Amino acid sequence: KYNVKFQELQRLYNLLPPNIEPTATAHIQEQIEVIEQILENGFAYVENGSVYFDVKAYLQQYPYGELSGRKVEELEHETRALNAQEEKRFFADFALWKKAHPDDMQVWRSPWGNGNPGWHIECTAMSTKYLGKQFDIHGGGMDLKFPHHEDEIAQNCGSFGCNPARYWLHANMLNVNGQKMSKSFGNYFLPKEIVEGSSPLFSKPYAASVVRFFMLQAHYRSTLDITEEALNASEKGFERLMEGLSLLDKISPSNESSFSVEDWKQSAEAALLDDFNAPILIANLFEAVKQIHALNEGKAQLNESDLSLFRDTLAQLTFDVLGVEPIENQGNDRLD
Fold first, then answer.
1. How far is 227 from 235, CA to CA, in rounded Å?
2. For domain 176-333, which CATH number applies: 1.10.3720, 3.40.50, 1.10.730, 1.10.287?
3. Any idea which fold 2-171 has?
4. What's this model's pTM, rounded to 2 decimal places?
5. Domain edges within the chain
6. CA-based, 20 to 30 A from 4: which of 74, 116, 269, 334?
7. d(CA 198, CA 176)
8. What is the 3-state secondary structure (H, E, C) of the chain?
9. How far is it, in rounded angstroms, from Cα 83 to Cα 137?
């Protein structure tokens, strides 16, 4: 049910589907195997049918807390009070496998008895199965940096001897009208509602490409404040960009070029190489729109090869890189 709804949202917002969509419950055996490897390497222990990661043993060979900038000795006051806290040898130890409780909705067999995997182990098991022991990029929300991603690193080092990812990308949070999005604040809405126009927070619906374009105007590591005023501004900006692309198709080449398309192209690509700086990329796209109007008014000119490069690059950066689409291409069937 939830997978289907998630896939509907992917189509609605023109998100490329993943090649593989593994589920934790289909990879219980893989999780058990990773836990067994961590135990064999001396970085875990069994206690009363549960398995815990041994942070003290891990610290003898690896740092813990580097990703989040946390120090172990400063974490004790942040540790959650859990039912099985007394089973742990050290407050920072975390569960790899949890012994079954009578009220558990589902349990799985394991070498340590019936139970359930810990919160973090599923990600290590699935990522290493399909991407290898180390891969290029691991993404996630800023709120997952600690403890979830920190513990993923510990599990991967504890089982395979290396950090799972070469680069970690953490997206920041979404605010609504200056407040954190929360049901308790009454400012909570679903991604589908903003396109349908069914959210009471907004007076009209917005095309999915407009919403996507709006979100891309903030760097992924920055907090984004969504307001109707900001969405309206993005809607106008998006229309301006689409009009510019349409106008560019009608421009005829000249014998000479009055500006360097290659310099503009390199500037746009440099923004992407600078930690995926989409706001700077979009600024380059609007610079291109200015040049398009200058071309249309006869105040600038491009020869045939430069005009072709300009068209191809602008279309690629807009439709392939930013992933937005002309609004007329977004049919209502995506809302089914």
1. 12
2. 1.10.730
3. Rossmann fold (3.40.50)
4. 0.90
5. 2-171, 176-333
6. 116
7. 16
8. CHHHHHHHHHHHCCCCCCCCCCCHHHHHHHHHHHHHHHHHCCCEEEECCEEEECHHHHHCCCCCCCCCCCCHHHCHHHCCCCCCHHHCCCCCCEEEEEECCCCCCCCECCCCCCEEECCCHHHHHHHHHHHCCCEEEEEEEHHHHHHHHHHHHHHHHHHHCCCCEEEEEEECCEEECCEECCHHHCCCCCHHHHHHCCCCCCCCCCCHHHHHHHHHCCCCCCCEEECHHHHHHHHHHHHHHHHHHHHHCCCCCECCCCCCHHHHHHHHHHHHHCCCCHHHHHHHHHHHHHHHHHHHCCCCCCEHHHHHHHHHHHHHHHHHHCCCCCHHHCCHHHHC
9. 35
Handedness of CA 194, 196, 199, 202 (dihedral sign): positive
**What are the angstrom distances between the C-alpha of 32 and each of 54, 59, 87, 114, 120?**
17, 23, 20, 12, 12
